[in-house]
Amino acid sequence: MKRTxxxxxxxEFDSVNSLxxxxxxxxxxxxxxxDAYSPFPVEGLAExxxxxxxxxxxxxxxxxxxxxxxxxxxxxWISVVGYPVNVGxxxxxxxxxxxxxxFELTILFAGIFAVFGMLALNGLPMPYHPVFNVxxxxxxxxxRFFLIVFSSDPKYNPVEVRRLLESFxxxxxxxxxx
Amino acid sequence: MDEPIETRxxxxxxxxxxxxxxxKISSIVLTRxxxxxxxxGFGLMFLLTMMLLFAMxxxxxxxxxxxxxxxxxxxxxxxxxxxxxIGIGHAGTLISAILLxxxxxxxxxxxxxxxxxxxxxxxxxxxxxxxxxxxxxxxxWLFPYPNTMNVxxxxxxxxxxxxxxVSTYATISALFWFIGLIPDLATLRDRSEERWKxxxxxxxxxxxRGSARHWHRYETAYLLLAGLATPLVLSVHTVVSFDFAxxxxxxxxxxxxxPYFVAGAIYSGFAMVLMLAIPIRKIYKLEDFITxxxxxxxxxxxxxxGLIVAYGYGIEAFMGWYSGNRYDxxxxxxxxxxxxxxxxxxxxxxxxxxxxxxxxxxLRSSPLWLFLVSLVVLVxxxxxxxxxxxxxxxxxxxxxxxxxxxxxxxxxxxxxGTIGMFLAAMFLFxxxxxxxxxxxxxxxxxxxxxxx
Lengths: 178, 452
Hints:
The structure holds 2 protein chains of 2 kinds. Chain A is about 45% helix and about 10% strand. Chain A is an alpha+beta fold.
């Protein structure tokens, strides 16, 4: 399959500071569709590439509410409607006793939503991604830092982007094939 | 003994770079040849696991009569071992979740294998309630599910709460462990030479590429999971203690149980962490990552939780006298002078006496001493559960219903078999997964600091 356009242009850096600096300056130069890759979480890097909306907390809250409500209502239905048993004269709706499973189910659902919500929002699992075509990218999980400007950016122009990336003094620049 | 802060051992020895940390940890899995000692160790533990399966198989054929449980001691080794194993698991969650929230960055080099320890310990613990019910093939009746019998669990019982607490704990521990592994699996994928390893680690890493957006969501999820796991771990042993405390048996019916159980769980868990960390750091030459600082800190946690446990014993003895209840007073007398008094004195020596040597700073940084003290604590905490379960039950209110408990060979085979299963899983873990979290170690390096 022949494509006329590359997926993007990628620069490799030696240090985390050059990456954060380059990401900030690329964003300031007006590029919107950029991403940065690092072998560990870097404070401020997400902001540097213009990422602000993290929906994970909301997903976890929704999971917790679903778990807690369904846990309590399940116990209520079972103990009052489905299978009422008189235990030592305690009321069918013994709410203090229902708190423990309600709590556990809140944690269970919130935790499951946190992990799978994070994966889903990140679009994982995704075994194939164009950035993996760059051989040097294998070091993104070791000790190298990468910045990419995607060709889908409205301002994308291979010559200008290359000139901008070169001005940051990267270790190498490679074109990412689609 | 009062050292200034500067001379404390570092969390990670100086001179490491992002590259060398990555290579050192990943090479243990990828390039280090498997030694004969590993095969011998794993082989022995595998045989013990087979013994466990044999003991369980025979149990399924014959029933719980092969065990030493009789009336009045209906809860024997199964419950003792269940509580012991689940308690051991607690240290892993404490290290990975609570110390993360408290920003104790030294945890980064021990959290991975401590979480693995939690997972395997909970797996061992989970076996016991399932097989002690008498008809293990219907153990799923513990869970609420629509059935043609139209019967549902009774939610006022702590035993039903325990089903929810332990199964939630197992699930969240597995998720927490797995989410922590994802970036390291990507590292292994990129570092493997062989194609089949690349494929397996690649599938498990799910295409992780370290994007800044991904890291941001990842860190949020990880932190929230830690925040959820923190109250969860405290709740699990609290609920386990309710299994006893809600009963009216003297020795069980006390309000000190929840905090005292949680402290005891962390006490035994840190002992197990040390017993695993000390040989691992020696064999795999990881002294630069699991330093004297980690040993010192773990020993201090053991000392502190051990004192909380001591307070629990003190309160139990005090209430035996202060309550004025003749059954509570008799329980204390029976512990000190009854047929199982030897075990009570051993318990006091193991849990209160010997661990006090940890006040000496030199012993706290001696791997050999820590290993031995940890072994003593694990024995002591097992005895504690034996005292709580068996000694409380064997002489309750009516002298006509007193009895004695003698574990059979099947009890021992099942118990020792779970130790074999636990260690066999640990042996596999250190060979196929990075036992130290690589990406969290990277964040500890000076290279990882972002200058403003």
